[in-house]
Amino acid sequence: MQPNNILTRVLTKPLHYMLRYLFKSEKHLKAGIITIVLLAALALFYKYLIVIFFIMLGAVSLIHTIWTKNYFGFELCILATVICAIKFGPLVGALVGATSIVLGLILSTNLDAGLFLAAIMFGAVGIIASFFTFQQVLFAGMLCAIVYDFVMVGFYLLMGSSPVTSGVYFVTHMLTTYYVFTFLAPVLINII
After folding, report:
1. Beta carbons of 103 and 59 less than 8 angstroms apart
2. What's the rounded Cα separation, in Å, for the pair 94 and 136?
3. How far apart are CA 72 and CA 167, in angstroms?
4. What is this structure's pTM?
5. Digitized pLDDT (tens) for each residue of the chain, 192 residues in all
6. Residue 171 CB-half CA count within 13 A
7. How many angstroms separate the CA atoms of 173 and 179, rounded?
C-alpha cells in the first residue's frame, strides 16, 4: 500500500484533524500521550500497586513499636492481609501478610525469635481470610487476629514474656483490630 494511497488519506486525515483539535500544540500532544501511557500502566498493574500499597501500610504501621516496645497491639498487617486475601486469593494474602510483618519488624528494629513464626502465622491468616467475603470482613479480621494472637502470645509466654504485658497486648490488639475493621476496612474496600 502506497503512503499516498487514497484509502490511507481517507483514514488518516480524520485522525490527524482530531489529534490536532485535541492537542493544539506539540507540548499538549506529549502530555496527552504520557497520560494515556500512565493510565494504561495503571490499568495493567492495578493489582500489583494495590498489593504494594497494603504491604507498605502494614509495615509502616509497626513503626510505633520502636517507642512502645510492642506492648500496645496496634498494627495494620492483619487488615492488609485480610483485605488482600479476600480480594486476590490465599496466595496473595499470605504473601502480603508475611511480607508486611517482616518488613514492619525490620523497620521497627524489633527482630527477635518470633519473626519467623510471625511470618508463618501471617501466611496462615492470609489463607484463612481467603474463605470469607467482604461482607464478612469484620468477622474475618477478628477471627484472624484471635488465631494469630493465640499462637503468638502463647509463644511469647513460653519464651518468658510477662503475662501482664502479653495480656495488655492481647486486649489492645483485639480492641484496635475491632476498630480498624469496623471503620477503616469499609473505606479501603470501597477504594479498591
Report:
1. yes
2. 18
3. 10
4. 0.78
5. 455 566 566 666 776 676 666 666 667 777 777 887 888 787 788 889 899 999 999 999 999 888 887 778 899 999 999 999 999 999 999 999 999 999 998 898 877 888 899 999 999 999 999 999 999 999 999 999 999 999 999 999 999 989 998 999 999 999 999 999 999 999 999 888
6. 6
7. 10
Q: Which residue is it, cell 493510565?
A: 39
Grid coordinates representing 57 are: 501500610
- C-alpha grid cell, residue 106: 525490620
What is the DSSP annotation of 44-55? HHHHHHHHHHHH
Cβ atoms of 81 and 96 closer than 8 Å: yes
Provide the CB-side half-sphere exposure for 83 (13 A, CA): 26
Q: Output the CATH code of domain 47-191.
A: 1.10.1760
Q: Give the separation between CA 134 and CA 125, rounded to whole angstroms.
A: 15
Q: Where are the domains of the chain?
A: 6-38, 47-191
Query: What would you measure as the largest C-alpha separation in the chain, in angstroms?
Result: 86
Angle among Cα 181, 184, 186 to the nearest 5 degrees reads 80
